[in-house]
Amino acid sequence: LGQLVQLGGKRAKRQRVAELERDLADWDYEVKRLDVFTSVTRRFIDVLEAQYRLRLARELRDLAEESLEAVSNRVRMGAASSVERTRAAVNASSAAVALRRAEAGLAASRADLAALWGSRNASFDRAVGDLEAIYEPPELPAIRDRLANNPDVARWASERAHRRAFVKLQDAERIPDITLAGGLRRLETSDDSALVLGLTIPLPLFDRNQGARDAARFRESKAGSMEEAAVVRAARSLEIAYQGLRASHDAVLALREEVLPQAERAYVGVRDGYLRGLFRYVDVLDAQRTLFEVRAQELSALGQFHRAAADVERLTGTPLDPTTRPSETETDTPDNEE
Question: For the whole prediction, is pTM greater than 0.70?
Fold first, then answer.
């Protein structure tokens, strides 16, 4: 019988390395979890934005059809030329095309979202959320303080400890282990039995684990620079995401408080003036196009705001404002999908 006796504390050092590898696996899981959560959030916002765009396209289509009917009545009464009716018909056809494009865009966004949970078809009917709800972003210095919660950064404490522990393990590996052996041996010449004990001690004359020790020390020496690089990358990504968050927030406010009210007043004024014969129909079309372009710009800014917020939350590992984040899908079929 033989028993290997490990010297140099190898067993305890291996246990320490294994514990730290488990910690690193936990951090890797957290990274993947946040990546998946962010991807789902961004695609959910895409669906929500596409639903709003579809609703806007339907409003434009309905308005174009109403305008076509109103212009047709004016043509029949001799108050407008047939050219204006042609323009109204073209506008209605264009609105119908835009509606079909919005429907296709929503279908694609729904499929992209469903693909994240492995479904070929979107089994939900619509995403439920308030895309129009925004909030004042925290100041950048306050968000920078949360960067330590980023698992890509936080994992480096465990990574450094793991590399140090691995160096100690490789240093211990240079110490040879001994083998104790014992047993009974029968002596044929005297017909006796004897207890035999043995001790095996390897002599590592040409193998002191030097290569593995050097490699482990090299990996340990790189840990500091690699951690610093990870922090710089995260900080740079946070800066970019935050600037996008702030810019989209300011754009939404400017569109809502200044541009959109003016566009609405201009459209209403031109439309009413056209009915009284003060403006041409081309002026109505121009005001209408401007109004819906502004509303589309607002939708784009809202989508950009929520996607940028998701990116910031991924980089900080903490929510910015969880009370305003849309996060549900419905499976009951509404009369009109929004």
Answer: yes
